[in-house]
Amino acid sequence: MILDGKACSERRLEILREAIDESGLNPHLATVIVGSDTASQMYVRMKHRACEKVHIGSVGIELPADVTLDRVLGSIRQLNEDADIDGILVQLPLPAHIHSEQVIRSVRTDKDVDGFHPYNLGLLLSGSPKFSPCTPKGIMTLLAENRIDVAGKHAVVVGRSIEVGRPMAALLTNADATVTICHSKTRNLPDETRRADILVSSVGKAHFITADMVKVGAVVIDVGINELNGKLAGDVDFAAVQGIASAITPVPGGVGPMTIAALMENTFLAAKLRTCDTVW
Description:
Blueprint: H1 5-23, E1 28-34, H2 38-54, E2 57-63, H3 69-81, E3 87-90, H4 100-106, H5 118-125, H6 134-145, E4 154-158, H7 165-174, E5 178-182, H8 189-193, E6 198-201, E7 219-222, E8 226-228, E9 231-233, H9 238-241, E10 247-248, H10 255-275
Parallel strand pairs: 1-2, 1-3, 4-5, 4-6, 6-7, 7-10
Antiparallel strand pairs: 8-9
């Protein structure tokens, strides 16, 4: 089974648009991008287009690559204080001279629709998330929409980033999966991945996951977006693994659209929480 994130995302966005229209709220998302990285600019444009689809207002703050940390923090401070802004997204990665963790911590926790602030990550780890990071949240939605139950399953997450790996493991744990996190220091990695009923890869290396690393019948979630021979490629060797897995996400068209759908849902949630705290 191909886990079609594009189709699932479109369904979720349609439902969300109707909910926003019926709510009487006017959610707004602000994006902050530093520099002119082509991929980052493309991702931000996609997010603004999604905002238009679901009737979320959006504004974009574009800062030069050589901007100072103080200016970045000042821009976020203004958005924190802007009563019209419900959610703030800082597009990552940031230039090397910008302290990413300090920037993430500067976003108000009730506007942190990316879910990266330590406060929101703490809520996630405690089992009571408010804003879950968008990629792991989107993956969980994709699994649920395809009636893939994770309870009691052995899930292996390859990659331990704050953006994907660690929150992915937390969400799977909260859903009653037994979770193993693997990373660059893991010994005998193929032995670990072959034990997975659900395998999630977010290492950022094209075709890193090969057929011999996947158990027959496993559900394979490919978070990677890499370039290989001038084309987009995931972490998983799709052609080789497709015949082994029971379900697999394609690249593109798998996890990416679900990430954007989750961002829109988080932004609407932020608007609802700012209006009525009893929503959460």
